[in-house]
Amino acid sequence: MTTKLMGQPVQRVEDQRFLRGRGRYVDDVAVDSEAGTLHAAVLRSPHAHARIVDIDVSDVLDVAGVHAVWTYDDLTGPLGSPLATPLMGEPLPLLIPHPALTHGRTQYALAKDEVNYVGEAIAFVVAEDRYVAEDAVSRIRVEYDLLPAVVGIETARAARNLVHDDVPGNVGARLEQNVGDAPAAIAKAPHRLELDLTIERSACMPMEGRGTVARWDADLGRLQLWTSTQSSTGVRAAVAVKLGLDLGQVDVITPDVGGGFGVKINHPWPEELLVPMAARVLGRTVKFTEDRREHFISSAHERGQVHHVTVGFDDDGRLLGLDVEFWHDHGAYTPYGLIVPIITSTQLLGPYKPGAYRVTFESLYTNTVIVTPYRGAGRPQGCYVMERTMDAIAAYLGRDRTEVRAVNFIQPDEFPYDQGLIFQDGRELEYDSGDYPASLVKLKELIGWDDFPAYQRELAAQGRRVGIGLACYVEGTGVGPYEGAHVHIETTGKVKVATGLTTQGQGHATVFAQLVADELGVRFEDVEVVTGDTRRMPYAVGTFASRAAVMSGSAIHLAAKRAKEKVLKIAADALEVDEQDLQIVDGVVSVKGSPDAALDLGTVSVLSNPLRYAFDEASKAATQFSVGDPGKPPVPEDEEPGLEGRDFYSPERATFASGMHAAIVETDPLTAEITILRYAVVHDCGHLINPMIVEGQIHGGVAQGIGGALYERMVYDESGQLLNASFMDFLMPYVTEVPDSIEIDHLETPSPLNPLGIKGAGEAGVIPTSAVFAAAIEDAEAQSAPGFTITAMPISPSELFELRQRSSAGSTPEGTRS
């Protein structure tokens, strides 16, 4: 029998192509055209907040090699104008509206009247090459009337100036959720603490920035668009609507994507509309490739939040009431709605029972780059708040930090567990499965938690400061509404699989092939997977929120089952046996116990077509044309020709993965440098499809989390200028800053919500890192400065040094105790 591939560490089939430099990214797209490809460049605002008084493009029009220049007014020409469609002049879509988002605002493809952040697109130039386009952009003259910039949460809350005149107090949204009466429960609790906790704004830095290439075929009335996106079908729909095309006139192809991490889930970006518009107007292929500075100032950021926590608890550290208020900086516009703060407000609870819970947030406008989800999407902030609270309770009571967590865990026999809140998908926040006590036991053994105090004392005697920290989290994964899949068995016996979501390095071609090979009984090498091509799968949602394996994996599994049902039915008819007597091994359908009575899948595929070629058994060559059995209808009512299966998976709600991380760090007594000595992870994503790929996701997530905890931040001045918009100034961890070995253990509590029992894993590594490092650094410093507290992340050596100075002067911020 063929070995089952589910759960096996199958080597990624993608790796050799990428490692040999054979990846094909958007900038590598070469479209055959006698005329060649034109290149676009964008004029971006140098000011964070200003009215546009006048735009003068006269110096550009006669530049050799320039084909067109557009400003907002060119997008709103009369009906029938070759430069415009009615909707191109309207704001970009608000992708995820929410009743609490009372003042949602989105930008225009090109700025109309006003700019609201440095980097906002104002004019679009198309030329023979990028050099000419860039030179032409520099010749455009814009007259501005400067306005006061609103930068940072504190300034936005003060509301002395407004980002948008029609948004009172800069508040785009305010949302409150309650479970019980948290203030009353806290007031009655034996102990109370208050904490103020901050995480600063950061951003993902994929190897490949945004890019778009478009070709218009005037003869066919058809647009082809290649774009580096996490939602090819979303881009397709937006482009069709904005350009006044039928959906069937637009093909969107997502080639290799050099990293997404959330920034490429936003759609459409202005360039994803302007490039195809230009291609259609000019009758030429047009390309735009974002440079690195553009990525810093005109893509998307995340993370920036300020939190105030009030918690009541008993002598054991058991939560009796939790009240959290926080403020979220969503930048100048809200194209992605309230997803990030909603996730923070709900996923903050992690694996715990909070007693009564009240959470309130305000989402605020600032004159900075927009916010979209960044790997973890609000969960790192929520985990940081909850785990810092747990550490504060343990410190207050003088108890072990693991004991305080354990007493608050949801127990294995309490699943499904309803937290009483509404999650990001509008469904109940109901955890489907897990075993948090078992995860904690594994983590303590993995990191050596009980033995650490002796190790700490030993190193302290040598003048070294080491500390240990841990953090627990729960992650909602596999959010809907759906994903689909198509499985086609070719007459060669090969299997072609298509799913609409995109891939950005997650190993989809490997794990999805594993699922199909298992279900169909074919060789892994005979399965080919295509993602992100609307020609192959026109309906999909996208790759984000750790949903690919749960959503597309389940859809592919179901589609393969449909194809298998057809295989067995056709083969049973041909071999004159019962379907139950058949098996499929290595692509051959045979009668159990009678291997000579067999058909390969290629032959079954031929037989699936009622108007088919018959095959000579010796040569397998076509010998005659046949219409099949004249006594039967060519295609029965409940069947269709072809050996293929198509299905969609739509879950009733999200499935919840979980995990726990721990780290041991050393802080230098003189320089305050922070060194990671050990890092351990216990992770539960249900059944594992490919443990090697899951561990790779965890490794990458931890590395990204280290960056967010110790290095990466966006530094704005008071005028809204981003001061570190280059790799010279924006710090990221090198391989030297990431542990050589990340110790990983798995727990598998299958989800009952999908046919594979799986949960998502893509964001697991990054979620708890800020909380882990804050705790470990605090523990190291507390050896020489009892009461030392960390309340803001990320933390650099210089900031740690300053905290030491303030701590020695008695001014380190601590939770208020009562």
Automatic annotation (TrEMBL):
The keyword Cell cycle does not apply. Its EC number is 1.2.7.4. Residues 20-148 form the Aldehyde oxidase/xanthine dehydrogenase a/b hammerhead domain. SUPFAM superfamilies: CO dehydrogenase molybdoprotein N-domain-like (SSF54665), Molybdenum cofactor-binding domain (SSF56003). Keywords: Molybdenum, Oxidoreductase. One of its GO terms (molecular function) is iron ion binding. The keyword Oxidoreductase applies. It holds the Pfam family MoCoBD_1. This is Carbon-monoxide dehydrogenase large subunit. The lineage of its organism: Bacteria, Bacillati, Actinomycetota, Actinomycetes, Propionibacteriales.
